[in-house]
Structures
1.
Amino acid sequence: MIARTLRNDSLPPLKRLRAFVDAQIKYLNRIGWRNGCLIGNFSAEASDHSEVIRKRLVGIYEEMRQSAAYCLRAAVKIGELPRKTECDELAGFLIASLQGAILQAKAERNAVPLERFKHLIFSTLLH
């Protein structure tokens, strides 16, 4: 999913980010809002029980953060975002917030938390 969205240089950067969020919503809708994100599920359930799993999860979150930062840097480069944008920090915030929205959507079994996340990031942070 990351290769098709965040790292897809054939799409404008903010469109890539929107596609990444939309892909999350589409996936969760398809599975009935029951399983959530596998990474989030493992983080909540298994990271206390296995150091190997915990370290792998940290690596996966870092890969997502780096991919989001790559996309944000591309947005800065073409003028979609201000030059002063702190891409690494913003990427970390976006990934953590997205994971929280996914967990809430799983509990509510609907897209409302993710749609709220998407609306707010694109109307206030990434405009």
2.
Amino acid sequence: MRRLLAAAILAALASHAAAQDRVVVFAAASLKNALDEIVAPSASKPVISYGASSALARQIENGAPADAFISADLDWMDYLEKKGLVAAGTRRNLLGNRLVLIAPAKQPQTLQIATGFQIAQRLGGGRIALADPRSVPAGKYAKAAFEKLGAWDQISGRVAAAENVRAALALVARGEAPLGVVYQTDANAEPGVMVAGVFPADLHPPIVYPVAALKGAKAGTAQFLQLLGTPAAQRVFEKHGFTVN
């Protein structure tokens, strides 16, 4: 029910923005702090709807009036491209990120992430907060990493699956989960958590954020895409912990 309500709200916001001829951007939840800072000075500020890449892609497929999409993985951009919804020649890889294990700041711990990792012992009676590993990029990366470590079987029945990576972050920040997996940029943005460990990059597919205009996008979309590649925008992304492609 919560996901349906959130989808309805996003669609309503997008429709309202479209009526005002403002550019509408659907962007992965992990981009919120950086993108909000980048577009703040814009004279014609776009409307940005944040959420799980999976949910946003499906809304676009179902006709949500978005002009641009920034996904937290290649799969969901590929999905829209195969549906013929991506404007030809506009897609590019924008950013990279890192995957980290987090704990509540009030209950700090440090863990060595390596083969034979006994993560279940560190959960006690709690659960591990992940973005839904069935569809959300951050959760899919986390599952791939735990599988490669031989640790997924330890936690597969103890996952607190959140609708997006920021929701997983919030579960740990509130102390409702003793551990969670998010992007480095999310951990940087939340003082209520601390980084307990960093996942080696070879444990999961490369974390890549592609961006593209969508079919029928407003003319102002091109300016928004250009803005993301400016030195000023790149400095903001890097400040928040992203790597710039």
3.
Amino acid sequence: MIRVTDHIALDESELVESFIRSAGPGGQNVNKLATAVQLRFDVRHSPSLTDEVRARLERLAGRRLTRDGVLVITAQSHRTQERNRADALDRLIELIRAAAVRPVPRRPTKPTKASRRRRLESKKRRGGIKALRGARSISD
């Protein structure tokens, strides 16, 4: 079990890792070793997530989520498979932790009377400056 938060723990069988070749420079190893990791996690069918966490995670995942609801995280920044695996898992855990936090609802506010007055005065001042530009006579 992989502990994400106090209430969420993922079973390791829910994660599917596949190894692919990394892109970019890498010297002699780049064409021989598959050090990049593709971590797949089925968000829609995971028994570990509640419905609200699942919905927020799908929204946060963005383009990393497939049509089938599978989250795909690719890690290739390190030179070893082990470090890329750890990086991919850390990124998944951070994403799930972010989805587990309930967003604080926005409290609607009104501008103060003084700020409305200042705004209108500044608009009048700008309008006055612009009106002076058009007041030039044709004889100039």
